[in-house]
């Protein structure tokens, strides 16, 4: 498959205790962090899309990707030598409540591939039942798989820490889902995504042994995580636990600050969906902010409480880190280092946010009052029902010496609100222009910095839906075309203006565009 055979070094299953029982039967798994389980073969695996960057990262070559064997392996029908499939055991807090054992109910890791001096765990999502499936089928529908595949790669190209996606394979089988949980189950095409990350450990991986009082297992897992996933802490000595927790906190801060920069709403920030490496993980009912609204969540399951709305993701991440701190507290003699880590989260988040603010607004540096300037702009976007991505991107086109609000014209969704905010926006642009001129950056430097912080192309919910609609009709070119655009989100791509448009009217209330259920 490659010039050299792929080299797997499955440390997770070799170093950590596994479940003595085999097979996918539903069970509580105690004293173990994984269960051996094989993917369930599918009828007719067919490669729909792949990420050229991830192919290169893993040291695969493209001719093999196009070959018959690839879809067999990444659809779950075959294994490469050295693969040793397992499902991980973890728990989690879901919507604020401890949910007990969850585990990989439909994710099966195939192995840890060593390539280019790095370790990459390859994991199929939708590969059939595991001991953690809790009565569900372990499968995934095409629509959610397209969304996970595209968003993983889109986020990477936006510079947001994320798990990656190697491939999207159609299974040739039907999966039955009740999309709106209203008693109307329907057959939908099934698919399998291969996700890729240095580690798929989650906060919930640590919470589960802690919840069972299994301190020996918890200690073993933390030691493993530091050794494998945080090699930079090898020499930290007595400080290693404290440094590790602080690192988890600051990485999480960096990730969430990026989400706020690009307008990403995760949608299900349960602690089982929080990566120990601060990577965006588990793309489900996520969404992209279009008309700016900090209260918005795409997740219809969360429509009542809006726990996971855009504007409170930082607070939720903090809450989740407190759950992790509680879980690992038996490893600490006193709480001070854990509190220090949590404080570092807040400090780092603020620093990152300032850094993004300076770039997004085209300033040379942060001075007192700039956060107010930003808050006022966001308030106007909200009041005027304006597209977040288009509005920020357009700011680079404003002449600070003679600002003209017409530059923001394409961002308005509601004509009636436009009239109300135009004078206020014009005034804001004037003050912003003065602020920009005070920093005296060269215009081309300012413009480049702004355009590197304010993407032109994001995975608008309806763009994904258009690609899904085509794929469900058997045409996967929409996925490939969209991925191609999203590989260069900060570039102006002539001829591809259609991918940088306001949400069209048809998408306003359409399922999959403004509302997403957890059913996947
Ligand atoms: P999620 O909300 O996707 O993070 O999933 C929560 C839990 O439910 C995880 O343990 C998943 O593995 C599991 N799960 C979700 N969908 C399925 C499915 N179709 N079959 C089996 N397990 C599932
Ligand atoms: Mg999950």
Automatic annotation (TrEMBL):
<keyword id="KW-0548">Nucleotidyltransferase</keyword>
<feature type="active site" description="Proton acceptor">
    <location>
        <position position="272"/>
    </location>
</feature>
<dbReference type="InterPro" id="IPR003846">
    <property type="entry name" value="SelO"/>
</dbReference>
<feature type="binding site">
    <location>
        <position position="105"/>
    </location>
    <ligand>
        <name>ATP</name>
    </ligand>
</feature>
<feature type="region of interest" description="Disordered">
    <location>
        <begin position="1"/>
        <end position="26"/>
    </location>
</feature>
<feature type="binding site">
    <location>
        <position position="125"/>
    </location>
    <ligand>
        <name>ATP</name>
    </ligand>
</feature>
<keyword id="KW-0067">ATP-binding</keyword>
<feature type="binding site">
    <location>
        <position position="195"/>
    </location>
    <ligand>
        <name>ATP</name>
    </ligand>
</feature>
<keyword id="KW-0547">Nucleotide-binding</keyword>
<keyword id="KW-0479">Metal-binding</keyword>
<feature type="binding site">
    <location>
        <position position="202"/>
    </location>
    <ligand>
        <name>ATP</name>
    </ligand>
</feature>
<comment type="function">
    <text>Nucleotidyltransferase involved in the post-translational modification of proteins. It can catalyze the addition of adenosine monophosphate (AMP) or uridine monophosphate (UMP) to a protein, resulting in modifications known as AMPylation and UMPylation.</text>
</comment>
<feature type="binding site">
    <location>
        <position position="282"/>
    </location>
    <ligand>
        <name>Mg(2+)</name>
    </ligand>
</feature>
<keyword id="KW-0464">Manganese</keyword>
<feature type="binding site">
    <location>
        <position position="103"/>
    </location>
    <ligand>
        <name>ATP</name>
    </ligand>
</feature>
<comment type="similarity">
    <text>Belongs to the SELO family.</text>
</comment>
<feature type="binding site">
    <location>
        <position position="106"/>
    </location>
    <ligand>
        <name>ATP</name>
    </ligand>
</feature>
<protein>
    <recommendedName>
        <fullName>Protein nucleotidyltransferase YdiU</fullName>
        <ecNumber>2.7.7.-</ecNumber>
        <ecNumber>2.7.7.108</ecNumber>
    </recommendedName>
</protein>
<keyword id="KW-0808">Transferase</keyword>
<dbReference type="Pfam" id="PF02696">
    <property type="entry name" value="SelO"/>
</dbReference>
<feature type="binding site">
    <location>
        <position position="273"/>
    </location>
    <ligand>
        <name>Mg(2+)</name>
    </ligand>
</feature>
<feature type="binding site">
    <location>
        <position position="282"/>
    </location>
    <ligand>
        <name>ATP</name>
    </ligand>
</feature>
<feature type="compositionally biased region" description="Basic and acidic residues">
    <location>
        <begin position="1"/>
        <end position="10"/>
    </location>
</feature>
<feature type="binding site">
    <location>
        <position position="138"/>
    </location>
    <ligand>
        <name>ATP</name>
    </ligand>
</feature>
<feature type="binding site">
    <location>
        <position position="137"/>
    </location>
    <ligand>
        <name>ATP</name>
    </ligand>
</feature>
<keyword id="KW-0460">Magnesium</keyword>
